[in-house]
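Dihydrolipoyl dehydrogenase
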Amino acid sequence: MAELNCDVAVIGAGTAGRAAERSARRHGARTLLIDDGFAGTTCVRIGCMPSKLLIAAAEAAHAVRQAPIFGVETVPPRIDGRAVMARLRRERAAFLASDRESIESLPAGVALRGRARFAGPNRLALDDGRTVAAKAIVIATGSHSAVPENFASVADRVLTTETIFERGDLPGSLAVVGAGPIGLELAQAFARLGTDVMLFDKSGAIAGLKDRIVEADLRRILAREFPIVTGVDLTAERHGEAVRIAWHGEATGTRDFDHVLVAAGRPPNLAGLDLSAAGLKLDKHGVPVFDEATLQCGAAPIFIAGDANADRAVLHEASDEGTIAGRNAANFPRVRPGERGVPFQLTFTDPNVAVLGEVATEETPDVVIGTASYADQGRAKVMARNAGTVRFYAARQGGRLLGATMAGPGVEHMAHLVAWAIGDGRTAAELLDRPFYHPTFEEGLKSALRAICATSRTTVPSRDEARPSAA
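Tokens:
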């Protein structure tokens, strides 16, 4: 069979893989982008977009139920589950069509359909018998849903993000396993759409939050809509047409559900790559050991980006990593660290959650913390969305912002501004010296910033003190 030659071969045509191919080509490399299906990115097919379409429907139903608070009398919403899921798939199909156009617009000969495995550090073997010789290779194979073995006996009632959006209707009852961002988002969305939801997690915290104060407040807020049980192990068995879930640990109990949604993490897609043939050192999870700054795997001409490296599994990070990996692959052996933004993750629950930069505790040396509550914040009360807590972490000397954990109304927007401020090395006093329009959600941040100024012995700008209160 034929041997193909290129400068950079990229395995995987998701967000990271496409970014890597573009970056390598932009740096003068002859590229091949290898994928077994070119089915679309994880975000478009089973991640960001279908989940947000479901959340949008849930928010509409929730708004109807909230209307009487404002003196607007309504009848309880009637949820047409089939219509909800039909719109989700219809809009997703439009996103997928646009996604496919980006593949079709690649230069001739770049996209190569096939399943690849390593036959050496610079060589790939394809499932059709062809081989690829490359000066450098980028692994960007993404991740996949994983179902724990203890659900094997009820496999036909188990859903993942790869199957739940294919349903024709909403489930009547649902046990959601995994209280990370995906599990929380989908649990709340289905609950608001009328599904009887209960959320379970083996760890003791939700949303992966390290800040205990924000985590406790978020848990309290979300528990108004569906039960949350953490710190437990689960067993599952068939009970007629239902799944009987039993949990034990910090709590014990048993309950039947129509289905189980497993959202407890996505391991990297590395099986079948034959990494041993590449001579790569692997960590205890079987992931190649790599340099987080360059994305290079040891000293090999191999780079790994996106969900495949199990580091920062969010879309903008995958894009950044692909860009860095592609550039370094094109210039190998001259590799250099890439510029990375402030670590930034959002959870699209209501209230939104954001974790930015470094997370600290009251015991962290040389760090001060400013806290703001949205329970009594002016604009939040007007909108009947007065719930949540924001915590800023700053250097004790000078008040430079280091990070934040935010749960509150409008956080998905405010968090961008805070991330940019952290990246620019801004201080709490410098932010307070910027305009805060009244009345807005953004005003709610001021009390946390003022607390940092007071604790770090930084003077609060006089112009801020003259501005209206956030209340």
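The chain has three domains: 3-37+114-144+267-331, 149-262, 344-465.
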